[in-house]
Amino acid sequence: MSSSSERVDLDGNPIKPITICMIGAGGFIGSHLCEKIMNETPHKVLALDVYNDKIKHLLEPDNLPWHGRIHFHRLNIKHDSRLEGLIKMSDLTINLAAICTPADYNTRPLDTIYSNFIDALPVVKYCSENNKRLIHFSTCEVYGKTIGSFLPKDSPLRQDPAYYLLKEDDSPCIFGSIEKQRWSYACAKQLIERLIYGLLIFMYLFFCISCFCFPIFTNILSLTAEGAENGMDFTIVRPFNWIGPRMDFIPGVDGPSEGVPRVLACFSNNLLRGEPLKLVDGGESQRTFVYIKDAIEAVLLMIENPGRANGHIFNVGNPNNEVTVRQLAEMMIQVYSKVSGEQTPETPTIDVSSKEFYGEGYDDSDKRIPDMTIINKQLGWNPKTSLWDLLESTLTYQHRTYAEAIKKVIAKPIAS
Ligand code: NAD
Ligand code: UDP
């Protein structure tokens, strides 16, 4: 770890050590963020989650170099009175907690809405009331479908970025009809974004009107200005398919046998078991994938450059790593064969309908390319890792972590 005096922000100012209340720290993104903060900064983390398996290596044993800088609090933010106290003790709160696996959006829409909107409300409220900075994790899914997806398949306009590039301050949010419950997640995330953004505008207007109407109270307002500015201390992150080690679970090994994780873990599971990879509705949807370690660099820049990050919504993704889901499957098959030394399966992929795979109410985002203007301008961040390289390191991890366990699961006789 570097000492605090050696570390400076993007404007050359020394970075002071802070305490971070990280909600959902035990998940995929949280575990990488905790690791980065422990390894490279002097900051303290109050790590809140219902699980800690993915950060156990950071918590034990007692002689780790960062001992005393990370404390795990096992709690469910739905109903735990410790939450406000932990936010008050911190300089910054990062909220990662969410149900965020598409298989849940159409099958458990109410849980999805509660988790992504209702449960996030107290976090926003406590931050706002206690003048604490908040970095809230939203999603690229708030953009929904592209405008181009409504054009005829052969329309040349589909190649025009104006019809597909997703811009924070410009693009509309286009969801499917109400019976397409897939969009429960995007709607809930959008509403919490709007609430946070609304608070930001409200505090700004309050400040401007106060200054205009009551110049006589300038001195008093110079005190409350601190409060108003604190009220604006929000950053919203829209991740575009961050992937890497520790993402989700492998069904039947470290998660439920019938569970359906996100695509990286679904395809990893198929590869580990030597099964064909399942392409939902032909695998035609397009995604851009960014390596978790690149994306975490962006989050650290947001943490340590509040003056540049506050009041902004940031797309965080890698526009250069675009593939169709079918191409992703083909690439993962090749990479897995390279890292495991195993032959590629005879039937590498099969097509399944979305109804069969996810059930009623599934729908999909057609294409997700992040516009990078805002994050470039504010934080100078760019992703570095190619899709091939990130798959190579991730599938090496998956093979090393799960191959033996899968063999044992497969060898076990099924109880009749
Ligand atoms: P994850 O599921 O691995 O992590 C979420 C963590 O939150 C889990 O450890 C879970 O136990 C915890 N949590 C959920 N509800 C909780 C509660 N009530 N109380 C305490 N802890 C709770 O997911 P992730 O990929 O790390 O995603 C983190 C955030 O980023 C989420 O808000 C998600 O919507 C957003 N996001 C991620 C991606 C991505 O590419 N990984 C894409 C879009 C959005
Ligand atoms: N998908 C697939 N096979 C799988 C799992 C997912 O074809 O086994 C597809 C899914 O329909 C979607 C894409 O992969 O088009 C990405 O899915 P993911 O679960 O990662 O989440 P999303 O990007 O949709 O939020």
From TrEMBL:
CDD domains reported for this sequence: Arna_like_SDR_e
Keywords, comma-separated and alphabetical: Membrane, NAD, Transmembrane, Transmembrane helix
Origin species: Lupinus luteus
Domain NAD-dependent epimerase/dehydratase positions: 20-195, 224-317
Gene Ontology terms for molecular function: carboxy-lyase activity
Residue intervals passing through the bilayer: 195-217
Domain of life (superkingdom): Eukaryota
InterPro entries (UniProt xref): Arna-like_SDR_e, Epimerase_deHydtase, Lipid_A_modif_metabolic_enz, NAD(P)-bd_dom_sf
Keyword Ligase: no
Official protein name in the record: NAD-dependent epimerase/dehydratase domain-containing protein
